[in-house]
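In this section we walk through a basic example: taking a raw amino acid sequence and producing a predicted 3D structure, encoded as discrete structure tokens. The instruction is simple. Fold the sequence below.
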Amino acid sequence: MQNLFSVQGKVVVVTGGSRGIGEMIAAGYLANGAKVYITSRKADVCDATAARLMDTYGGECVSIPADMATLASIEGFVSEFRTKETHLDVLVNNAGVAWGAPLEDFPEVGWDKVMDTNVKGVFFLTQKLLPLLEQNAAHGSPAHVINVGSIDGIKTPIFDNFSYGPSKAAVHHLTRVLAAHLIKRHIIVNGIAPGPFPTYMLSAGVGGGGDTENTDWDALGKGNPRGRVGTPEDIAGLAIFLSSRASGFTVGDVITCDGGSVVS
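The resulting token sequence is shown next.
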């Protein structure tokens, strides 16, 4: 019963790891002894985050910039990752985008960009990394895939982001489908549905312009049943649970991390 939540020495990939929830999850793995690879579309931002996380938490954080919306970029990421590692223990499919516009004006590009990144990217990155996930996976020590959805894929979103909620609902069901197929290959797939966290995406949605430092998170948190927005410990703790021995019998679930928003 010891070391139930240990991720020491594991090799982890976190997509969209340069900021927001992805950065919080990457930080949690680093602080607990894992080797972490992060991706984002902007190379300079990805590189800077990897350096900052290592300065703060120690360990090794490697930046491999990539756009999870295109198959060519996904294959490029996997190719570069293969030059550095022979196996993968944990894949966190976190990269995601949103698009806001009124219903009558919602554009095709806003639909396609969100679906390509949030759904297609999750499937094809997982597909391309399967050989590395299977490399060290065994009955007693499975590999793990964690898909980051959203409570907007469970309940109706409050914003006019008409492709975002459906994309996250698709991620939730894709999680169940992949879990059913991969559990026999010693790969456990689960999902997380976050609620309000102090991220660029939420700041932009509530009128903060993406300025996470100056958005009034305390005021926003007062509308949450928990009385606050989420913290890095909340989301990192759940990710660590879902990639440790503690979750060895939890398969195909999507766990909310939202302070009680959905149930309330």
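Looking at the output, two observations stand out. The radius of gyration is 17 Å. The first strand starts at residue 11 and ends at 14. In the next section we compare this with other chains.
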